[in-house]
Amino acid sequence: MSLLAPDPVAVVDLDDDARRIAHMAASVLLDYPVEEEAVTRLEVVADAVASLPAPVAAAFQRFLAAALEMGPRALAEHYIETFDRRRRCSLYLSYYDAGDTRKRGGAILAFQDALTALGWELDRRELPDYLPVVLELSARSDDSLPGELLAAHRDGLEVIRTALAQVASPYESILEAVCMTLPPIDDETRQRYVSLVTQGPPAELVGIVDTMPFPQTGAAKEARP
Hints:
The protein is an all-alpha fold and 225 residues long. 57% of the residues lie in helices and 3% in strands.
């Protein structure tokens, strides 16, 4: 079944505090749902997003309701099936710029340079282009750079959202909420998004498999002198 490119998500006007809450909530929910912590995470996020503008809050609440209904074990299994085994659901943003090409390393390095420039470092084994890491950085940093990174990868975010919708994953609602917090999509980005949805990211390396060869947990901490 081929993927179709739906219209991009409409933007919602948020102040800085609401944007931070939305990005932190999305970061928490898009990280691997450890079974022992899953229910607590959902409850904390539910309280946090209740104050967000209605369309954004509703998107989060759709996911939260579905996750509670699924239960921790089923949610963890769905997460692995969705994000580890479906290439177009990859949470590594450089994949949508460089695909499986030799340019991938440089694209990842650009995220690392941004993290370093802002005075933060990863405190777990993870790549710096992992979407929950970038969202957490956007939520916790006073600099505009993390938000600009997200906006610059809006095409990739829309591809993830479309792929999640195609498999009826409740995680699509989280990507919808994130996209609501970003600037309006321009024509050039929309064209890249449509191309990525219909053709997929570039590929030139041999031995490509369905599972992405990256770990699935991550978080950022502020670097200390």
